[in-house]
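Try this one yourself first.
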């Protein structure tokens, strides 16, 4: 089964599923977007393995039961300077059971952050929030060693899940 999010800017957000051949298209959920800046057409989500999808759409991190019920907002991102802003990338579910995510516009320098929270929305914390420069993360994964790896503007970096022990593994040439 394939699942996705669609909806043009300023229109309701639609979450659907269908067969790989395109048949059996079914709308499982739709919601009006807020007027507080959550008007970006991008949205992504993951299967949490617990009967729920976890996803982002603009300034919202949400949880939705796979049958389209039990929608809840886990976090609304207020933006710079103290929070993530536009979490337009799906969170990852790490081996410790927590969600980890990235954004490109929040934090002290408005250059992006890496954050974590529990699947019930509690325990939100910015792990990486540079006070200068541009992090601009575009991808985040957990390695087999349990560490987080992120593609950022400068290259490939590795972090512990507490945001410490940052190491640049590969620097991109300019």
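Now uncover the answer:
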């Amino acid at each position: 089964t394939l699942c996705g999010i669609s909806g043009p800017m300023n229109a309701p957000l639609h979450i659907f599923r269908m067969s790989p051949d395109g048949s059996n298209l079914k709308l499982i959920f739709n919601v009006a977007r807020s007027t507080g800046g959550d008007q970006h057409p991008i949205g992504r989500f993951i299967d949490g393995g617990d009967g729920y999808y976890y996803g982002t759409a603009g300034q919202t991190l949400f949880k939705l039961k796979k049958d389209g019920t039990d929608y809840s907002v886990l976090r609304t991102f207020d933006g710079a300077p103290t929070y993530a802003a536009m979490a337009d990338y799906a969170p990852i579910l790490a081996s410790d059971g927590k969600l980890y995510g990235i954004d490109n516009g929040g934090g002290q320098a408005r250059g992006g952050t890496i954050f974590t929270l529990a699947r019930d929305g509690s325990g939100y914390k910015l792990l990486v929030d540079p006070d200068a420069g541009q992090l601009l993360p575009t991808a985040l994964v957990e390695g087999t060693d349990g560490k987080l790896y992120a593609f950022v503007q400068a290259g490939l970096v590795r972090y512990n899940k507490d945001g410490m022990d940052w190491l640049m593994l590969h620097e991109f040439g300019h």
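Discussion: The two ends are 41 Å apart (CA to CA). The chain has no helices and 15 strands.
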